[in-house]
Specification:
Layout lengths: L2 H8 L8 H9 L2 E5 L4 E3 L7 E7 L1 E7 L5 E8 L3 E2 L1 H6 L6 E4 L3 E7 H10 L1 H27 L2 H16 L1 E2 L4 E3 L5 H8 L3 H13 L3 E4 L2 E4 L14
Antiparallel strand pairs: 1-8, 2-7, 3-6, 3-8, 4-5, 4-7, 9-10, 10-12, 11-12
Helix pairs in contact: 4-5, 7-8
């Protein structure tokens, strides 16, 4: 079994496919490489493909009238995006940019729809994944409305730790943390504010910054964060 079929078995919407189904899907995919900061999908573009990330990270963003970037979410190897436009026929709802050099596997709209007809279980998986993403969006909206900036930074770090953290004796290690600007763009604040919050968390012993890594204390998720004004 090659790396591509191994990757497909990790993609949530394709779980449950037998060897024949995975092999057929793999044969329909077309690899595309993108350099860091390259635009992969533009807002309002026609949605004609599903993208699966084989290597690298991408971010889904919107831009305000002033050009300020708002990061809606980030995806990495094993994640997918672009399914909404394929299902409803509407243009893309956001921009997707490469955060680093990335390789994506592209499934055309025709192949995607054919695969849904042949593998009904995939449709159920897509509905489950879309429901999960909607719940996550509701949570993010709630955090923006109800949490102060300390709580929003803490919640983001906790979510990253749960998704990709590695438990060690010294704490939960996040190996590729977002930049301070990326964190600011995800929670609706400034990079300077994020820097101040991270410094305060480090001073209190909640976390350690180690180059591109960040180590959260084991009790970080259970701590209460007092409201403080930006």
């Amino acid at each position: 079994m090659n790396k591509q079929t191994d990757l497909l078995r990790q993609v949530s919407i394709f779980k449950g496919l037998d060897d024949q189904g995975v092999a057929k899907l793999s044969a329909s995919l077309r690899p595309l490489d993108f350099a860091k900061d390259a635009l992969i999908v533009g807002q309002d573009d026609q949605g004609d493909a599903l993208y699966i990330i084989e290597r690298g990270r991408v971010k889904v963003v919107l831009y305000g009238e002033s050009g300020r970037e708002m990061i809606l979410t980030m995806f990495r190897a094993g994640d997918f995006f672009g399914e909404m436009s394929l299902l409803d026929g509407q243009p893309r709802s956001a921009n997707v940019l490469a955060m680093e050099d990335a390789r994506l596997l592209v499934l055309s709209r025709d192949d995607f729809l054919r695969h849904l007809r042949e593998e009904p279980g995939v449709a159920a998986n897509i509905l489950a994944e879309m429901s999960r993403r909607l719940r996550k969006a509701d949570e993010i909206i709630g955090n923006l409305a109800l949490l102060d900036v300390y709580g929003r930074v803490a919640r983001l770090l906790i979510d990253l730790a749960k998704k990709e953290g590695e438990a060690t004796d010294e704490g939960i290690v996040i190996t590729s943390r977002p930049t301070q600007q990326d964190i600011a763009s995800m929670i609706g604040t400034s990079r300077e504010t994020v820097s101040r919050v991270l410094s305060e968390f480090q001073r209190r012993g909640f976390l350690q910054m180690q180059g591109k890594k960040i180590v959260l204390s084991h009790g970080f998720a259970e701590r209460d964060f007092e409201e403080e004004d930006e």
